[in-house]
Amino acid sequence: MDGTTLLFFVPACFALNMAPGPNNLLSLGNATRYGFGRACAAGGGRLLAFLPMIALASAGLAAVLQTSERLFTVIKVAGALYLFWLAWQLWRAPTTPSAEAATPPARLAALARQEFLVAAGNPKAILIFTAFLPQFVDAGRDVTPQFAVLGALFLALELVAIAAYAWMGLHLRRWFATPRGKRIFNRTSGTLLAGAGVGLLLSRR
């Protein structure tokens, strides 16, 4: 691809990757509770959700989502309901040492599935690949390899964002070591996730 195109794409894409959102909030919260490495590994579930979205955008099939009001609404409502459920779980999460000891630690597969479902349930994600990536594609050349390059760069930058939010969560853990601090963090995170769910319900194509 043209070097100038990539020069514009990388910083614009990284700004999207680093923007606060439900998945980045999950990485931050997972690092606070389970550590940096587990939060980064769980973020792989998010990348798996993005792979078919990039493939759909490359094939032009994502236009179906833009034209089908019913499909868009179904995905939007399902994603919002899942965010509300996560918010409720955080709001009710135990904060005392005895309660936490009685709660088995979340398996990595469960955390990765959480990341996958949050990413897959957000129609805005696939609209990013539909509306953002094509701006950097030269229609006069073969489109598929260009989408492959842009998609690979997007996933690489998303991995950096996962690590950055996990790092922030790791250091926040020191500030929220007390039961009161954990309660504040859990309820703040739950409120933000619920707010993201409301925003998703109110979103339009």
- Shape from CA axes? globular
Unreliable spans: 98-103
Number of helices: 11
Largest sheet: none
- What average pLDDT do the residues reach? 78
Helix proportion range: over 70%
Structural class: mainly alpha
Number of strands: 0
Amount of beta strand = under 5%
Distance between the terminal alpha carbons, to the nearest Å? 30 Å
Helix-strand pattern, N to C? Answer: HHHHHHHHHHH
- Gyration radius (Cα, Å) is 18 Å
What does this structure look like?
By secondary structure, the chain is mainly α. 80% of the residues lie in helices and 0% in strands. The protein has eleven helices and no strands. The chain has helices spanning 3-18, 22-34, 36-42, 44-59, 63-67, 69-91, 97-102, 108-120, 123-131, 143-175, 179-202. The radius of gyration is 18 Å and the shape is globular. The relative contact order is 0.22. Mean pLDDT is 78; it is low at 98-103.
